[in-house]
Amino acid sequence: MPYLAKTLIYPIKSLDGVEVEQSKILSSGALEFDREFALFDGQGKFVNGKNNSKIHLIRSQFDIFNRTISLQTPKEDSAQVFHLDSEQPEIAASLSDFLGFAVTLRQNPFLGFPDDTNSPGPTVISTATLTEVASWFPGLNVDDMRRRIRANIEVGGVPAFWEDQLFSQQGDIISLRVGEVHLFGVNPCQRCIVPTRNPDSGEAYPNFQKIFVQQRQATLPDWADSSYFNHFYRLGVNTRLTPSETGKFCQIGHEIDLITSQM
Question: Which residues are CB-contacts of 103 (< 8 A; sequence separation ≥ 6)?
């Protein structure tokens, strides 16, 4: 029986995630607190792991309910604790000092700062998928791959690439019911440079993308609609939710069902 095995949120975009027992659906369809904050440079552009590998060297731990972050950079001997709401300038100053240029911390509690603003629902992947993909790279394990892929919802009790059923095919709408929450699969998530790097050091794994693409194409399940793969550097599924899901919760251990309906 498929079930919700893990939920991870990333309160500050590109920094470390935190595992939570339950997550609330916002009116935008995003998970509460996920990518609620993001760093920006003086030109108003994102400062993230895609464009600055030093981001990987920053360690952060979040206390979601007390709204604090414990933040440590290689320039500091110990972690500093900040309040996410009342000490945003102090957080930005600490990170600016480490990065070597001025950054600001912005907040969007309604949508957050997802990569895909058209599909801001939680990204979905299975534990078996993460395990399988980690096996393609000697020296990596499932937790390493989890930290590289940075998905929100992890499904247990299913085979690898089970989530490739979730994007619509042949005129059907595929929804995922997690407890009482309905999510609609949209497309396989296009990956960026971040998975190629060690999440602690930022060091690139040799030929990561080439190996990934070759293996992903070779292992694509028969049930996956290959028309969604203009390239094979895709993993996990982007989702959307309707406003009717606002305020509902996804809880660890919830049973998961696939529901197919006609467009």
Answer: 39, 40, 41, 47, 92, 95, 96
Q: What is the mean pLDDT of the chain?
A: 94
Tokens at 91, concatenated = 């957080």
How many angstroms separate the CA atoms of 84 and 86, rounded?
Answer: 6
CB 146 within 8 A of CB 235: no
CA torsion angle for 70, 15, 9, 199 (degrees, to 10)?
Answer: -110
pLDDT given at position 261 = 63
For the stretch 159-183, pLDDT in tens is: 999 999 988 666 567 889 999 999 9
- Which pair of structure tokens corresponds to residue 16? 């470390």
Residue that is written with structure tokens 């600016």 in the block: 96
Cα dihedral 189, 194, 199, 205, rounded to 10, equals: 110
Residue with tokens 């996804």: 250
Reference 132, options 120, 107, 152, 149; nearest CA is: 149
- Copy the structure tokens of residue 103: 């950054």
Name every residue whose Cβ is closer than 8 Å to that of residue 248 and which is 6 or more positions away in sequence.
24, 25, 179, 180, 181
Q: CB neighbours of 232 closer than 8 A, spacing ≥ 6?
A: 212, 213, 216, 217, 220
The amino acid sitting at 96 is: S
Q: Which two tokens stand for residue 199?
A: 């999440």
Strands 22-24 and 249-251, by their bridges, are antiparallel
